[in-house]
What we know:
The protein has 561 residues and is of the alpha+beta class. The chain is 38% helix and 17% strand. It is built from 18 helices and 20 strands. The protein has helices at 20-28, 38-42, 55-58, 72-85, 136-145, 162-167, 175-178, 214-218, 252-263, 277-285, 305-321, 329-337, 364-377, 409-412, 414-425, 441-445, 448-459, 483-545; strands at 34-35, 65-67, 89-92, 109-112, 119-122, 127-131, 148-149, 185-191, 197-201, 227-234, 236-237, 241-248, 271-276, 295-303, 325-326, 351-354, 357-360, 382-388, 393-402, 429-430. Strands 12, 13, 14, 15, 16, 17, 18, 19 and 20 form a 9-stranded antiparallel sheet that branches. Helix 13 (364-377) runs antiparallel to helix 15. The model is unreliable at 1-8, 513-519 and 539-561 (pLDDT under 50). Residues 47-48, 90-97, 101-102, 113, 132, 154-156, 160-161, 163-165, 167-168, 170-172, 222-223, 227-228, 343, 434, 466 line the site of flavin-adenine dinucleotide.
Amino acid sequence: xxxxxxxxxxxxxxxxxxxxxxxxxxxxxxxxxxxxxxxxxxxxxxxxxxxxxxxxxxxxxxxxxxxxxxxxxxxxxxxxxxxxxxxxxxxxxxxxxxxxxxxxxxxxxxxxxxxxxxxxxxxxxxxxxxxxxxxxxxxxxxxxxxxxxxxxxxxxxxxxxxxxxxxxxxxxxxxxxxxxxxxxxxxxxxxxxxxxxxxxxxxxxxxxxxxxxxxxxxxxxxxxxxxxxxxxxxxxxxxxxxxxxxxxxxxxxxxxxxxxxxxxxxxxxxxxxxxxxxxxxxxxxxxxxxxxxxxxxxxxxxxxxxxxxxxxxxxxxxxxxxxxxxxxxxxxxxxxxxxxxxxxxxxxxxxxxxxxxxxxxxxxxxxxxxxxxxxxxxxxxxxxxxxxxxxxxxxxxxxxxxxxxxxxxxxxxxxxxxxxxxxxxxxxxxxxxxxxxxxxxxxxxxxxxxxxxxxxxxxxxxxxxxxxxxxxxxxxxxxxxxxxxxxxxxxxxxxxxxxxxxxxxxxxxxxxxxxxxxxxxxxxxxxxxxxxxxxxxxxxxxxxxxxxxxxxxxxxxxxxx
Length: 561
Ligand SMILES: Cc1cc2nc3c(=O)[nH]c(=O)nc-3n(C[C@H](O)[C@H](O)[C@H](O)COP(=O)(O)OP(=O)(O)OC[C@H]3O[C@@H](n4cnc5c(N)ncnc54)[C@H](O)[C@@H]3O)c2cc1C
């Protein structure tokens, strides 16, 4: 698929001069819609994950133009222009995803969609209609003000967009009870790669058997099949009560046992999240009071008060049965209040290297132990944050805290791949693909990849919609990146980092042994000095009192002069 009429398109070959097509785009579109300012373009060459400088050998992440549409018609016009010019398009929400989906592989036009931010609630259909660039927390606030609640939202709700979460097939808060975003979307408005603005699905009723479900194809397509401009999302009535429960566990083993017991029971919390011991100690480093050291689970129940009370008590009983301890209501409330800020530990990094994977819920203790081993082998601080995405699936976010400014950090990027590989080995998968994981797709999907590539070709024959992502990993040279090379590359850099960490650890151990002996020696000298001083003082006092304290005087007590 690489090539596909794309050779030589996009990218500025050097310097900051915009390509001719970009100047033409700026002239043709509404004033202020297109930016070619090099400083601004620089800001669009990354997402939440830090981009290793070396990635620029393979990709050209800086776009040639950024457009910031305020309405769907502007999106449609720029897409039509891009089709004619054969220029790649990269849709972007708030760039809080870390898989590089909103980062160009070879320049082109980035669509910053945050200007499509209208939101309104339709009481008649119990839906909220939100622009693709609307921020989740704003959608949630409006729904609550109208007496509803969102069935699910990402923990990045304070900053991420509706279009971004739809395109990453999001699973987040509320998924245990109501499912992910796929269960919430009733209809989408999308500009397809042929420049048509279409409605997919039905605003007022569910679709079931009414033709191919193209709307569902868009969900989780990571911006490779079209630009979502608006979504109609289902709402739930607001609950009578919302009640959190927190529980501490001695180790990840008991924590895992509890989550499984809960998932196999009839109890249905709205949300279940959990944190391993390393994450808890990272929170302590931030100065937070964490009474549980081995592992923590946070649940929240919602609905009629009577039901909530019953489920809360039943879950507390399971906590005790699994060897855990139910925390105070105050601690449970504080933990729940922080649920959108789990990754505040990044302050300790300052760079957060993370991955997100889905694994069978029955294997969470095993996966968490494996992830902890990976983090330890790299000798970096890290931790694991997880949620129960359903009764059978856990979503785990392992992370490492590193310093991007250090040269060795480049090699730590291999960690991200190790987390993904571990999940695959244990029956799971990475939670996203984007730019970085596209090479793993054939291993994950086997023969069905052919059908996926065929769908992409049918809808986007010119391969202009977010090229180089999801169905194929393609470099800026329009060369498909073979899985074997990508995998070998990430494995080698990971190995180098482990070796570097190992020698670093040995040096540190040696230094600490040396400094320990040095400090022991200093302590001995100080003790001797203190004893001498004490002796001197005693001799002086004795002399003043006329007492003989010379060694060899074996008499007890004092001698009267
Ligand atoms: C602290 C933190 C917590 C998170 N918690 C969760 C969580 O609970 N659950 C979860 O699933 N994820 C989570 N994420 C990942 C991420 O925040 C979500 O996937 C988020 O919804 C992405 O939205 P965004 O606006 O930032 O999208 P972006 O990062 O901008 O884009 C993501 C992908 O979607 C495409 N895209 C964006 N907008 C459009 C559009 N309108 N049309 C077509 N394609 C589009 C992009 O091309 C890209 O491939 C978390 C991330 C962080 C940093």
